[in-house]
């Protein structure tokens, strides 16, 4: 896949892809540090992200690459791309335009709190 | 798996597990927002995390559950647990004691920068 993706061999060699050829991606807002979403990339999506600074992913359900915001307008400008210690997860630090979540929420983690801080109480 | 895990049925029903029965987990430092690590949970690991507030995961390579810091002492106190919009990723907000990464680094994303900010230059 790397040969066709154009991804630099020294980066491709450090990736530990899953059985579908993908690495996990965590996307974080620059400045606030909010975790916006989690997604997947193949080599070509990573290469597209590195060269264009537009967050680009691989949809497992649709079986194709997609550029975040291409249809919604909720684009991501990518400031940093980091690879984790075992090479199977990428961290993007981005400026997110409008909501990152397809539901309209700011992040994909806004709606469903399973456990809250011990000392605080929820109102409303 | 839920029956044995003790996980509340209303939570178990919202999880969209992968073919190995796992959900992805993003772990973030409280306050700073740093993304510390990415890992996986089965139902029992999530239940253990919710009830003990100690970050508990499932190791795919070892095929067993593990409590972060159990051997290293680098424990995590869990302040918040959130589920994402499609139920396949959990976000933990934690207080991390010492380094989160098995390499000794503070986070698993410290060592390998694939792309840096456009305006800045790297020295050293």
Provide structural commentary.
Chain A has 124 residues and is of the alpha+beta class. Chain A has a single domain, classed as Ubiquitin-like (UB roll). In chain A, 15% of the residues lie in helices and 34% in strands. The first copy, chain A, contains three helices and seven strands, in the order ααββαβββββ. In chain A, the strands form two sheets. In chain A, strands 2-1-6-5 form a four-stranded mixed beta sheet, with helices on one face. Chain A has a two-stranded antiparallel sheet with strand order 3-4. Chain A is globular. The mean pLDDT of chain A is 93. The interface between A and B is large, with 42 and 42 residues. β7 (112-115) of chain A pairs antiparallel with β5 of chain B, so a sheet runs across the interface. Chains A, B: Homodimer. Chains A, B: Pathway: Amino-acid biosynthesis; L-histidine biosynthesis; L-histidine from 5-phospho-alpha-D-ribose 1-diphosphate: step 3/9; Amino-acid biosynthesis; L-histidine biosynthesis; L-histidine from 5-phospho-alpha-D-ribose 1-diphosphate: step 2/9. Chains A, B: In the N-terminal section; belongs to the PRA-CH family. Chains A, B: It comes from Halosaccharopolyspora lacisalsi.
């Amino acid at each position: 896949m790397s040969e066709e993706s154009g991804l630099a061999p020294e980066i491709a060699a450090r990736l530990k892809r899953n059985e579908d050829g993908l690495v996990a991606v965590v996307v974080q807002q620059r400045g606030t540090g909010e975790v916006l979403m989690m997604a997947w990339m193949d080599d070509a999506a990573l290469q597209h992200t590195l060269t264009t600074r537009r967050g680009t992913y691989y949809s497992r359900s649709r079986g194709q690459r997609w550029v975040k915001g291409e249809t919604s307008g909720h684009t991501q400008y990518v400031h940093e791309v980091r690879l984790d210690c075992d090479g199977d997860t990428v961290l993007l630090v981005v400026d997110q335009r409008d909501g990152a979540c397809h539901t309209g929420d700011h992040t994909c983690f806004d709606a469903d709190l399973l456990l809250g801080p011990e000392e605080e109480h929820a109102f409303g």
